[in-house]
Amino acid sequence: MTATGTVTVPYPASGILVEAEAFTHYGGWVLDSQYELEMGSPYLLAHGNGKPVADAKTAMTVPKGEEGEYNVWVRAKDWVPGHHPGRFNLVINGATLPIEFGANDKDWTWEFGGKVQLRAGKTTLTLHDLTGFCGRCDAIFFTKEDKLPPPNGVDEQARAWRRKLRGLPDQPVDGGTFDVVVVGGGVVGAAAALTAARLGERVALVHNRPFLGGNASVEVGLRPRGVTGPLVDELSARHPNGDIKAKTLLDAEAKATLFMEYTVYNAATTTTTTTTSAPTVTITSIDARHARTGREIRLRAPIFIDCSGRAILGLYAHAETLFGQESRAEYNESLAPPARDTTHHGNTVFFRTRMNSSPAPFPPVPWATAVAKDFSDLRGQLTRPGLENGDGPQVVLPPTTPVSVPRRMKGPLTHFWEYGNYLDPYTSGERIRDHLLRAIYGTFSNVKTLEPDTYANLALEWVAFVPATGEFRRYKGAYVLSEGDIRSHRPFHDGVVFNDGAFCLHYPNANASATPTNNDSGHAHARHHDYDFRLHYWEWDERDRHPYAVPLRCLYSANVANLLMAGKHVSATHIAISNMKFMGNGAQHALATAAAAHLCHKYATTPAGIYEQRGGQWLGELKELCARITGTGTHHAEDSKDRGERVKSRL
């Protein structure tokens, strides 16, 4: 939990580092490890929705002979500069330091807490929340050195400083060698790992959260859509507490090993160059770090499946990727914009309100209403895990939708709460989440303020701190699926699974100058011009409602030989991925990639090797295996247009 040590760096090199995530008792604080790759470390979050949370507590040991006067540094963040909504105190041996942390108008930084006298032996530390509005503490550092603050970056120098002071090895320890490693434990990754294990492969599943499911997890709560099938239904069924059953199923598989709360931060590769072909990159291992202990491990496998939804292995292995919206001309897509841009689907934070039997006070939140403005519509709630689009209080009617919009699109849609479409999803995730929290708190305050008698008892029952994430980079595979492929049900001789559903395109408010209109194909648009956290309009094109084929070539990297992918980052255009992104659809990719990994192991080949094998026996075997796993019988994916209805009924 605590460690002492000395390192050779230009900032304090000796002292006692206490990581907040290593506290013995979190109290009402929660561990937030989502943004470690952005800001450097997991941290504790005081997420009380306006009510200060219970204290987090721990103890550290001052070695004998090291007693004396120490400088105190606390790494914290003022997440709304000028307003300081996330303030907290540090209490040492019962004495509160005379500074409120999280109130310095700065992003993540080390704040000086003054000097304290410490005796040898046990010292107690307490984080005391003052607001209930997302105060956050990364670490506490005690040093006798009067130097510059500790390193504040996310680079290797900062990581080495932390490792040394925590007594951790300089290099990752061996975490094992497997037949296949799956990264990302959403519905897609869980499906890939479970399928691989049931096919007899020794599989490791690496996931950065304490719950499996991703956007369907109990931390978020979406219901898987698209094609599901027996296995997906099995693993996404929910326990009474809302958690999906994926972990229970995987824990029962002898061939499966779960690495929960591990963030992948590196991939080692080798490159083979020949005179007749382009260089071939192969991933040999990946490194992952545990959120609570900082333990770093190295996992090896001949095949890797990226189910992270953010092409994370591709970034580390320098795989070819796609990002944003392709232009209309690039793939001849009717729904694409005239010019290429970097707009992508944003994130959503779910919430739920309730009416108490007595008044539920809520403090003034000018820092939140600055985002919400006059918005006062709390519809679009998560009623319970797996049931979104719930109703809610509404004081002022939002901008209306056209009369011709289909009735079901006029409802209280959860996904109209969205932000981040223009920001870098890899470096701005925390900022996006925080903006949505401000929007929710501000809207809630507006409702209670505008009709104080009606909503005096209205309370926030639950607000997620883990957002439903949208679009990141997509891989470029041996083939890029496009809108035309889906609409025409293009036959693929390497079609391995089916996907289904509508083109689901989210457009933020910068498009307000080009207000669309409905047309006969069922496109639906909802207008929320004045609020940057509300979608401007939403394209929902159900096409012909028949399933379509997904070729194997969309499920492996174009330039990383042993990298398969499944989910919303497969090889497809922005328009095509708006249909393929549904969790049920991604799980179908997962089943196919697990089957492909199984055959790669069986025949000592690569995914491209399966596709390119002369005679096609391996590809034929893969298609038969996928048909058996998905329950589609002998209806191969190249038959999607002619046999769509029969296949759909089986899926």
Automatic annotation (TrEMBL):
The keyword Iron applies. The keyword Cytoplasm does not apply. Coiled coil: none annotated. It comes from the Eukaryota. InterPro entries: FAD/NAD-bd_sf, HdrA-like. GO terms for molecular function: 4 iron, 4 sulfur cluster binding; metal ion binding; oxidoreductase activity. SUPFAM superfamilies: FAD/NAD(P)-binding domain. Keywords: 4Fe-4S, Iron, Iron-sulfur, Metal-binding, Oxidoreductase. Pfam families: FAD_oxidored (PF12831). This is FAD dependent oxidoreductase domain-containing protein. It comes from Phialophora macrospora. The lineage of its organism: Eukaryota, Fungi, Dikarya, Ascomycota, Pezizomycotina.
